[in-house]
Amino acid sequence: MSMHIPSCAAGVPVFRVLSPGELERIGKEMRHKVYKKGEVVVPAGSVLDSLYVVHRGRLNVVYTSLSGREQIVRTLGPGEFLGELALFHETVMEGDVVAAEDTETCVLPRNAVSEVIRNPDAALRLVEELAKRLSAAEQLIADLGLREVGQRLAAEILRLAASGHETPEGTVVNISSSWAEMAVRLGTTPETLSRRLGNLADQGIIRQTSPRTVLILDIDRLRSVARP
Predict the structure, then answer these.
(1) Average pLDDT over residues 32-41
(2) 91 and 135 share one domain
């Protein structure tokens, strides 16, 4: 399996402002790593000293309680990255980073990225990315604290609808993860999530057209359900 490593860096918004020469330089520092589904990429408690860029596949950041309950706090797809906080100070992973499916990554050492963000445009993009991550984290905290499971599910479908496509019947939403994985992310069980999904379908708000596809029939009512 081959991959042009500078192109992996070019897929990251922070790095798109770099010149071909700068991309080539950081490409020389990058290492290509492949992980099988379920493999732990970075275990909890590890010092994070590199930037992990997803080239293909998905990574989940999973926190596990003492009782064994899991919570997915972040999912990363192609072009997204993990380890940005390590650029500023030594960072210890609080949860496991796990391959949600077979995944290819580019791994860039901290010192190489530190050189890159001397570029003012790249540094600004990094700050913008950190702001998005903070906003997403705050949204997750609010969802878990203020919404019950049905509301969380409705809110998640609405978020996914932003990248869906319109048809005469409604908005088609593709679910990239499994429903079991979504249940962990939303802080519930697959059985409970399935019941809430069925409730939305019974009310005529959505229709599940395939195992990973949902058709939103009434987006206004879905927004009403999602409201805390």
Answers:
(1) 93
(2) yes
What is the domain-level CATH number for residue 158?
1.10.10.10
The three-class DSSP label of residue 75 is strand
For the segment 39-47, the average pLDDT, to the nearest whole number, is 91
How many other β-carbons are positioned within 10 Å of the β-carbon of residue 99?
Answer: 21
Q: Per the structure block, which two tokens stand in for 107? A: 């791994």
Given a contact cutoff of 8 angstroms between Cβ atoms, the answer to whether 211 and 99 are in contact is no
Structure tokens at 228: 């805390």
Element (DSSP H or E) covering residue 20: helix 20-29
| Nearest residue to 53 (alpha-carbon basis) of 118, 94, 3 | 3
SS3 136: helix
| 2 half-sphere exposure, CB direction, 13 A CA radius | 1
pLDDT tens, 157-197? Answer: 998 898 889 999 999 999 888 888 888 888 888 888 899 99
Number of domains in the chain: 2
Which range marks the domain in which residue 215 is found?
148-226
**CA–CA dist 155, 147 (Å, integer):** 9
Whether residue 103 is found in the same domain as residue 137: yes
Strand-pairing partners, residue 171, are 166, 216
pLDDT at residue 32, rounded to an integer: 87
H/E element, 226: helix 219-226
- Residue 79 corresponds to which tokens in the numbers above? 């072009």
